[in-house]
Amino acid sequence: MNQFGKVYLVGAGPGDPGLMTLKGKALLECADVVVYDALVSPQILAMINPNAEQINAGKRKGMHSLVQEDITQLLVNNAQSGGCIVRLKGGDPFIFGRGGEEMEDLVAAGVPVEVVPGITSGIAAPAYAGIPLTHRHYSSSVTFVTGHEGAGKYRPAVNWHAIAHGSETIVIYMGIHNLPYIIEQLLAADLSHTTPIALIRWGTRPEQEELRGTLETIVQQVEATGFSAPAIAVIGQVVNLHAILADCRPPQSS
Questions:
Q1: Do 130 and 245 meet the contact criterion of CB atoms below 8 Å apart?
Q2: Which residue among 2, 79, 101, 103 is least crowded, i.e. fewest CB within 10 A of its CB?
Q3: Higher confidence at residue 158 or residue 192?
Q4: What is the pLDDT of residues 28-46, one digit of tens each?
Q5: 146 and 197 belong to one structural domain
Q6: Is residue 253 included in any domain, yes or no?
Q7: Number of structural domains found in the chain
């Protein structure tokens, strides 16, 4: 009977190394193998044990280093050799990070596995942009939704009509490529044309930038500026607080 090592699904956070959890950092420092995603920042990668094997399993739109099945098999194969294997994922493993899928497959293969949560970009990036997702005067509810659905889903599409009326703040992950369609659906669901929206690119990193507008103007603004992924979108009245709070942005850690 094989004596498996243990796989840790570690959330690297959105980029600022100061947002990496102490538990995650400790695991990187003692890991034997680290399989990391494309959006993990260089400062986080610098925390890895210099003697560890580092494997880039990055997945970006149109540029997949490894398919999901290969990543899972890679984790299983390394676990069979024993030791500490870290699957380092941007943000939080369980928030649009396929962490649940990978954990299911590892459990099915008999591999010991543990999740170490990370700070998700949908919370951190707006905070660094001076946009609180909740505020007693503007928003008592938040919806997190993906703007990039995979094929073979459990249902064919996000119900954008329900999303439009389900909460006062909407946070969309991976929605830049599908932004025209998403905006069209939200407007068709009678969300106001003047609803504020902010796009936040490279959230919490030194290169973070924002593009703000309304549902009526944002697609044209993206086309005019060439604003591109990776970015998240925040929709709702809380976006207007950027004008007051943006100067309070935390300094990025080195």
A1: yes
A2: 2
A3: 192
A4: 999 999 999 999 999 999 9
A5: yes
A6: no
A7: 2
